[in-house]
Write a structure and sequence with these properties.
- There is one protein chain.
- With about 140 residues, the protein is of the alpha+beta class.
- It is about 40% helix and about 15% strand.
- It has 4 helices and 5 strands.
- The strands form 2 sheets. It has a 3-stranded antiparallel sheet, covered by helices on one side. The chain has a two-stranded antiparallel sheet with strand order 1-2.
- Strand 1 and strand 2 form a beta hairpin.
- Helix 2 crosses helix 3.
- The mean pLDDT is about 85.
């Protein structure tokens, strides 16, 4: 069972771990031992998460979200299978915690009358400066 916060726990049946061979340095060990972990969380079927949380989690997951509604995390940072497993579970818990936080609604504001007047005065001043850059006409005739 994966502990998210005081009220949310992810059951073991929702998580599937698959161990594969890691890429990168590791000498002979990298060819023999499957140390990288692929953690699959069946988020869409999870009874522990509400619909808005699942929607936010899907947005946070990005490409890691599958068409079946599962979240897949791949970790091959260390040479230890156990440590990679811990890292993957920590990342999943962090993602879910981020999805639990509902974003604040933006309250649209209007610019103040003074700021509108200052903006228009600055525009008029700038227009005068640019108008003064024109060619000078000869009045001599």
């Amino acid at each position: 069972m994966l502990h998210i916060n005081d009220t949310i726990f992810i059951a073991d049946w929702e998580l599937t771990e698959n161990f594969v061979r890691a890429s990168g340095p590791g000498g002979q060990n990298v060819n023999k031992v499957s140390t990288a972990v692929e953690l699959r969380f069946e988020a869409e079927r999870s009874p522990h998460l509400s619909a808005p949380v699942k929607t936010r989690l899907k947005r946070l997951a990005g490409r890691r979200w599958t068409l079946e509604g599962a979240l897949i995390l791949q970790v091959d940072e260390t040479r230890s299978q156990a440590r990679n497993r811990e890292i993957a579970r920590e990342r999943l818990a962090d993602l879910i915690r981020q999805a639990l936080v509902a974003p604040k609604r933006r309250i649209p504001t209007k610019p103040t009358l003074g700021s509108q007047r200052r903006r228009l005065a600055a525009k008029a001043n700038r227009a005068q400066i640019k108008a003064g850059r024109g060619t000078i006409a000869d009045d001599d005739g």
